[in-house]
Please model this.
Amino acid sequence: MGQKSRISARKLTALLFIIIAALLALMILSLYRQLSQSTEVRSVEAGLIEAEGSPTIYFNLKNIGANTANYTYRVICNLTAEPTLDEGIILNVPPGGIFYYTIALTSPEQGTLEVTLEVYKDEETVSQNLLFRQKWIIKG
Amino acid sequence: MQDLRGTDNSTDYDVSGANGRFNIYTASGTNGLQVGEDGDSIAFLIKLANSSEPGNRFAIQNLATGDQYEVDFTIGNYTFVILFRAIIIRLFIITIRIGTCSLYYKLASGGSWSSAEYYLRMGLTSGTTYTSANGNIGFALTNATSTSPGSVKFIIKKQRLYNLGARGNLVSDIYALAAANGNGWPGGGVSQPNDRCPSTGGASWTLQGDIPDLPMGILILTLPLIAIYIYISKHTRMIHGSKITH
Model:
């Protein structure tokens, strides 16, 4: 009886360790897949948060290269006198470093607000440097 | 928020006239800077002088494009700058007041500035705190009146500073600059700011809670494993217990 319960305790412990090992392996695999996805596929993540009265556009720019890099961004809007609402240079982002950008706008009282975000590698806004471009249409 | 010791003097350079909105408030030994913190953030506040002349004191309606207010500070091996810069757009009879808040960092030993965060806010109201989409940085402007000083307040997440290289709990070389015609970069790209507080050098301050040393993500991943481990040890002890009684 004692022998049997000792064997079953060993079996249970072994089973639990196998489960933990499997969980650990799954966790590592999922982390690896997440990391490889973010470094190989996407360097810019952008989105629109539709807060009441203040639509907010954001982008997260990750330097996926091996060297420190500079970038340029441009936000174009249809409701301002000058089409470019905001532009700037993002300087010295180290490899693996992330730059976070947020723009909180004011909802139009009527009509639609069209906002285009462009992100370029280096400091020249030329088409061959374009990393990311997206347009949002926000209703008033 | 509490007064930051060592910031009871400032240098007023009175550059380019209309200087009132840049006067960091250090009258009669009053501190010009305040600091504060909670569990996850650090805050700095620049106090700006009150004035009986409405057009010559810090107020959102008096902001001009290029008005820049910044706080420089060092934690561990890294120096940080968080700054506010105003942009004013006039469309016929409409005036759009835009505030931008930027965070930069570099090695304290030298090197070039790196961009970390940028937040642009269209439409500004006195006393409202504006926070970026990820919550890492924020700012609040408060108008000065004839009797009370105005302020520019900055809020920064400790975790973000940690991610950028900040370590430890000593914040040193803290000073504030206020300048007209700033370009949005540390120092504003101007040869001389309108005001600097303290006049020379910088103040120091010790954080009550450290810049976090352990990334929260690792803790969260570890918790289920700890729970499983506790479960196993308890379960094994129970089986062995029953074995002894037999």
